What we know:
By secondary structure, this protein is of the alpha/beta class. It has ten helices and 14 strands.
Amino acid sequence: MKKAIGIDIGGTKIAAGIITESGELLKREDVKSDPSDRENMFARVLEAVEQVLKKSSFSLADIEGIGVGVPGKVDRENGIAIFQNNLPWEQFPITARLREQFGLEQIQIDNDVYMAAFAEWKAAQVKRSETFVYVTISTGISCSIIQNGSFFRGAGFAGELGLIPVLSKTDNKGNKRLEKVAAGPAIEKLAEKELQVEQISTKEVFAGYAKGTCEYLPFIEEVTDNLAQGLYTISCLLDPHKMVFGGSVIVNNPFLLELLKEKLQSYQLPEQQHILGQMSISRLRQDNGVVGAGLRVFERL
């Protein structure tokens, strides 16, 4: 049974896992990120790999290669992390550095959302001829598209759903980018403003909504309407066969899916509504980035 190491790198934490060729996650370990500078951050990546090997029954000799999901823009061919909003890795040669450290030739890097999308595509068993979209709603909002068994990448920045402007009631000037009015931090800010509190978490916001507390209803209505506008853009441009949602905001609050379907249906023509029955929440949850990164060692897209 072939095995690989998958690494999912974020500004808050780094997850490393040992993945089989069939996509089974054998072991996972998380370490805290250190974005204070590029070398400190890389040291934490090495620590994550060392920890997952140490706490499993495997050694580097058992590993075929390493897959790495990195936020932002990456140069896959040359193994360089080009730009990130939350990491100090501008033009960082991560592939060369990992090869130097571990001596493994087979190292694949890609954007972290693309890695997660690959795991979800494999798990969903989508036909290669069909269009598949993975949408993540978390600290940010983004999506990845797989068509005919390959990623749609555009010039390298395709899938940035969070940058699409939507008509939002929370913006006096009219349009705002979706991420600024519907991602986790935006939900917290909106709730703090509407409830007139200094600090509130997304977990508390959705717990209040789930209990039926009336103060929470208007801004959850606003957030879901903003998200539905973004999803309708996908529906119109791509008319996908299947759509899977990940990210902490929706994975931890699965009732959001039905709210989004209702909102989306109000925008759609009858010919577009086939997607409503093909929308689901990730079964891999927070493991999809690690699993996808590991699987990419065995299959490139």
